Amino acid sequence: MNLKLTPLAEVHETLGAKTASFGGWLMPIEYNGIIQEHNWTRKNASVFDICHMGEFEFKGDLKTSGFDNVVTADLESMPVKTCRYGFLLNETGNILDDAVTYRKGIDQWMLVVNAATTEDDFKHIKSNLRSSNFRNMSDQTAKLDLQGPLSRDVLVSLGCKGIENLAYYTFDYFELFENKVLISRTGYTGELGFEIYIDSIHAVELWNLLLKEDRVRPAGLGARDTLRLEMSYPLYGQDITGENNPIEAGFGKFIDFDKEFIGKEKLLKKKTNVEKKLVCFVCDSRRAPRHNDRILKDKKTIGVVTSGSFSPSLGVGIGMGYVESHEAVVDNQIIISDDKKELSAKIVKRPFYKNGSLKG
Fold first, then answer.
1. In 170-182, which positions are buried (b, 16+ CB within 10 angstroms) versus exposed (e)?
2. Would 192 be classed as within a structural domain?
3. Are both 25 and 144 inside the same structural domain?
4. Which whole number is the average pLDDT over 87-97?
5. Residue after which a domain boundary falls, among 230, 264, 288
6. Of 16, 74, 165, 284, which is most buried with the most CB atoms under 10 A?
7. Whose CA is closest to 226, among 136, 316, 161, 155?
8. Would you say 220 and 18 are in contact if contact means Cβ atoms under 8 Å apart?
9. Are residues 37 and 164 in the same domain?
């Protein structure tokens, strides 16, 4: 299998990163250890190579083009320079992908999607548009995420004038080494953070500029996974897939049922008959649950683990998984089993980690 490479592939090799396949890309998993990178992000600032993500641009009228119908979020009410999270659904109301929509102008939009689904997402959206002004910018766009409580201070010191005024889930354009870059106050870690979009030819230059700061260290997808899991953020391909819908996953607030969208009719029917729900659980030991472990109650299988890990911040094993709806009760005692070992656990409210600087 030929894996795709981000513009920073050689940089990661020089830094001695451990790499692995992710979504069809060769990606850095860790540099100096997942726990170390996780803790550094919670206290300082880390830079992540997220160039594997997909970026689409659409220009045209939201309604007459059909673009409004491909995303579940309320796009019409979005002010310019704001972002909004939502889903792409198929005709059955199940999840094709989760995505963040950026309103760059009255009739100009950017959609950020997951790496493994980029090509299929583009085909799906294009086939549902009545306008041809839709393009895939992924190959020309580099995306670096600067995350952590010191991330704003770092960008201020690099000359991003006005970055301190950027509100959560908004974006603007800033000058970095004489380049105009789009920076949004968004992220996947639960900390104050920014996502930086720049022409891919400048990716290495931006990466090196950020790492000149003593407050910034590189972090891989391993730490990104533990950070997002502590915040109960879903991972496409694990916690949400084509077999799930947003209601059973617990993300109904990102569905605008007052507008038309692909899969709405079927999703409304599923809304009244939710057979399983995605829950969060904490183990009573440091041992980590794993993807596809069984979830038991009174020795009966009631669900399956979708994500699991040791939590560096909490010092115990944590996870998410789908269970039968009537068992999705906070404080419900459960057992996690891989048929060799059993872990005692308890269902809890999301998120696991509540001390982040996300909206600080």
1. bbeebebeeeebb
2. yes
3. yes
4. 98
5. 230
6. 74
7. 316
8. yes
9. yes
